[in-house]
Amino acid sequence: MGKIVAIDYGQKRIGLAYADDMLKVALPFKTVEAGKDMPKTVDLILQALNPISKEVKLFVVGLPLLMSGQEGPMAKEAKAFGKLLEQKSGINVQYFDERLTSAGIERELKHANISRKKRAKKIDPLAATRILQAFLASQTT
User: Fold this and answer.
1) Helix H segments across 49-115?
2) Which domains does the chain have, with CATH numbers?
3) Which pLDDT does position 109 carry in this prediction?
4) How many CB atoms lie within 10 A of CB 78?
5) Cβ distance 4 to 19 under 8 Å?
6) If 0-12 CB within 10 Å is exposed, 13-18 middle and 19+ buried, where does residue 94 land?
7) Element (H or E) spanning 14, and its range?
8) The pLDDT value given to residue 107
9) What whole-number distance in Å separates Cα of residue 81 and Cα of residue 112?
């Protein structure tokens, strides 16, 4: 058994979530502030995952496709990030469509009257959780 880690990649903050492959339930983990460049960001993420790093068997990186389904600049950046993460960690990376994930979480938190400051701290790991839950659901169909 191993853990699957989902990553909601962003240029400022990165959300992390994980699930045991047997439980099929995604849980928010952490928010990591992006580093000065992509290699530093990957290092910071791997450090943040240190408590569970030996158990990680797969990374799922959210792919922010355009509404047309095509890859825009952020999707290409997320793929470059995933490639570097795979090289540095030795763990396989898969990509999963995450269109509107962060926007949906933001809307839900706003509707729940969560302050902007608290939303900023919660949105990224919750978005990663939603990405991972959708990924897990897609694996059972």
Assistant:
1) 73-89, 101-111
2) 3-139 (3.30.420.140)
3) 65
4) 22
5) yes
6) middle
7) strand 13-20
8) 72
9) 32
